[in-house]
UniProtKB/TrEMBL annotation, chain A:
The entry's keywords: Molybdenum, Oxidoreductase
Gene source species: Methylobacterium nonmethylotrophicum
SMART domains reported for this sequence: Ald_Xan_dh_C
Pfam families, per database record: Ald_Xan_dh_C, MoCoBD_1, MoCoBD_2
Domain of life: Bacteria
Gene3D superfamilies: Aldehyde oxidase/xanthine dehydrogenase, a/b hammerhead, Aldehyde oxidase/xanthine dehydrogenase, molybdopterin binding domain
Protein name: Xanthine dehydrogenase family protein molybdopterin-binding subunit
MF GO annotations: iron ion binding; oxidoreductase activity
InterPro entries in UniProt: Ald_Oxase/Xan_DH_a/b (IPR000674), Ald_Oxase/Xan_DH_a/b_sf (IPR036856), Ald_Oxase/xanthine_DH-like (IPR016208), AldOxase/xan_DH_MoCoBD1 (IPR008274), AldOxase/xan_DH_MoCoBD2 (IPR046867), AldOxase/xan_DH_Mopterin-bd_sf (IPR037165)
Record-annotated Aldehyde oxidase/xanthine dehydrogenase a/b hammerhead domain positions: 32-147
UniProtKB/TrEMBL annotation, chain B:
InterPro entries for this protein: 2Fe-2S-bd (IPR002888), 2Fe-2S-bd_dom_sf (IPR036884), 2Fe-2S_ferredoxin-like_sf (IPR036010), 2Fe-2S_ferredoxin-type (IPR001041), 2Fe2S_fd_BS (IPR006058), Beta-grasp_dom_sf (IPR012675), Diverse_Oxidoreductases (IPR051452)
Pfam families: Fer2 (PF00111), Fer2_2 (PF01799)
GO molecular function, one term: metal ion binding
Protein name: (2Fe-2S)-binding protein
Superkingdom of this protein's organism: Bacteria
Keyword rRNA-binding attributed: no
Domain 2Fe-2S ferredoxin-type: 16-92
Alphabetical UniProt keywords: 2Fe-2S, Iron, Iron-sulfur, Metal-binding, Oxidoreductase
Amino acid sequence: MSTDPGGLTFLDRPNSYIGRSVPRPNARRLLEGRGVYVDDVAMARLGHVAFLRSPHAHARILSLETGAARAMPGVIAVVTGRELAEVCTPWIGVLGHFKGLRSAPQHALAVDRVTWVGEPFCAVVARSRAEAEDALALIAVEFEPLPAVVDMETALDPGTPAIHPDLGDNLAFERVLDVGDVDAAFRDAACVVEETFRFGRHTGVCLEPRAIMADWAAADGMLTVHHSFQAPHMMQDILAKHLSLPEGAVRVICRDVGGSFGIKVHIYPDEMATCALALMLKRPVKFVADRLESFQSDIHARDHRVTARMAFSAEGDILAVDMDDLTGIGPYSVYPRTSAVEANQVVNLTGGPYRHRHYRARARVVLQNKAPTCQYRAVGHPIATMVAEGLVDLGAARLGLDPFAVRERNVIRDDAYPCAGVSGIKLETLSHQAALAKLKAMMDYEALRAEQAALRERGIHRGIGLAAFIEITNPSAAFYGVGGARISSQDGCTIRLDPQGGIVAAVSVTEQGQGTEAIIAQIVATATGVPIEKVRVISGDTQATPYGGGTWASRGAGIGGEAAWQAGKALRENVVAVAGAILQADPASLDVRGGAVVDAATGTERMPLAELGRIVYFRPDTLPPGVQPEFVATRHYVPKDYPFAFTNGVQASYVEVDPETGFVRLLKHWCVEDCGTVLNPLLVDEQIRGGIVQGIGGALFEHCLYDADGQLLNGSMADYLVPMAGEMPDIAVAHVVSPTASSEIGAKGAGEAGTAGAPAAVVNAINDALRPFGARVARQPVTPEVVLEALGLI
Amino acid sequence: MPSDAPDRDTAVAREHAVSFTLNGERVRCQVPARTHLGDLLRGTFGLTGVHLGCEHGVCGACTVLVDGRAVRACLMLGVQAEGATIETVEGLSESGRIRDLQDAFHARNALQCGYCTPGMLVTAAELLAECAGEIPSREAIRAAISGNYCRCTGYHAIVDAIATTAEARAARETAE
């Protein structure tokens, strides 16, 4: 961590808010029900859109009769895919650095063929959503059902038809990595374990469904879009491109966002259609997904089958990993981030904590007629972690070794950094050993093992599961930009000092509840010396903030935060320069603390900022000649020396399995992670806890179920289970702190860590409990049925 | 999507007059038969703190108090509000009745995106009122809020905040 010009580090500034559990300033209004989500924004002349969605997994649209719908009361317009295509151009979700990745042109509204249950192909705009839905019911459609590719296991079979005939087959992407001499390592190994892991499809279930409202003001030539979204500038760019508007004619505003988790960072056909409809109708149009539409058309995630093996020495050294990943992504690679990233991350991350030097991985990404999948929280991480950690536990059991000891033996040593992981990833500084030690003490591992053994005697079957992991955060342009995607990896912050000594900070990273605005306020207050109560933060508006990527991939604090720190420092330098001129003091001898210019050495107040502001803004005539105050500063930041700031952590789960019912009770969960500088422990810990519970959801409950015809079977919250309070454990969180030297603030991300490790910890705990029965599970979600199957009871 | 096309206009969309007490004020309005209470409160009265998450009565985001009991606004028709006393998070906030609970949520960061929060607060307010000075166990709190989904926090902090509020209220009652 470097030293700032005032001679003080980031952490040591007087009145520093860094590392303090400052409550989020913007949370109060949410607590009073005064949040403003998209559906809360009032707009005159508003049209509500409802979409006709495909009831078939794959079908040709033979005819579409809309006359009766157009005649319904309240209907403003009925628009087909063909009509909409004249306003909104199609897109293809590929990236240049994913060599060979293929997809097909996708329209906002399907034109002549539908490719999954829920794909929109016709829109009704009416004075109310209810009237729009009334009219939808009167549209007559004639379909010719086509063969549906549902099972990813057979998607590549020669007899399976290609969903997009132009592509020839259903293989969208394949990556093979072969490092070291894998065959020799397995040949010489004392112990080889193998498992096939299955990861069910699940989805984000943001409590606020996707929502967008677009208003085309023809007189201004301005499309204003209120959007429940994570990346406003990306949306601006894409709307401009596909609606053939200049960039400056599109403004995207993201106010409160009711959960996102990666769901709200992709281009959705219905959202593009809504904006196109606003252009066509020259009036505001709003779309709010209902819950069935959310399950049918939000991106899904996971849906992987991984067959993997791990080679060990007799002493328990991991020698090699060999794995094969197959994943089904729906009929299109999602624009613009593509649907190949999760499989690619699985290849990059599997076994990432460990020291083995032989690694072979193949990932195949196949098309199918189900909802498209794309990046959702902890992209690829839970899969990679489950595969490696599941195999480590199998190896430990086979060798008669303690699973904690095997991990301690194999993790990359804390003094080995910087180094490269076996997949080639560059690791700056990680702390697996310190994290394991901390976890062991925190959970009192030995005592827990003793308790487990004692209870087993009494027929109570508890298990302890461990999961070490690495996490990708702070992505540079290496993530998307180098592949040609117009997704900003740099972010900016503009800070203005107002006359009374208050600060307005505008940032390009965005807030969906993580606490982005809170940590920006903390950093800005610390950097400028202004009390945090006098800092206001603006985010989520392409017209009001610097240009940037938004919030995703755990980048808000590490990238947006550094931009804010640099902007704050620059503003403080400007302030002391002007104050020095007024006070006839050397600016280097001055600092700003507690909202006043002070003597840096003694802390004695020289001038309140409010007095400085009064002079600068209202009596500039009294300033010394040649002094031009600049009380606005902007700085941008992008990580340059590493493609990603990897972090690490380890989780543990303690569960009880009822071998008669297959029910799993979560008793306790622990996580030690290392996100570098902890800017706000309160916020980081809750990110971790929330992430863990989301991971547990995928491990035990959440599953998008399709039948053999590609029909989604559980499109409601009553049928699709998410974690509820009564089933979740208390979660203990602790940190190891290894700041990144890439930035002055040293912060890495923390948003994925919980979700990355929780499924493996829980599933390993279940298998630990089942070990006396000679049973094990490897299919998520691990429902009671899966447990009973493993026990041979059903 | 409605499938009962022909008679829709005459029955489900017909408006009815209702009057009820909303956040302490007597109100009167016309409401179509098919409009649920959540849409009525949001659309006619601008009470956008009533959040719609599933409209199937599962997620709990739209929870309001009807005659003192926590009710899913999406499972009650607007016409059923006739004569009722309804309180939303806006009313509970303005009256100051849940100020301590809101402070505890804020201090503990027991909310992230804020979408479940109004419903969660209403359910917690009902639990705390029922406890009447007794301190509920963590298990009891978890059971009470099990009908309110939160996708952000993992619930731990919410349980902490409700427990803290219960303890503080019990201590106050003892002191008085």
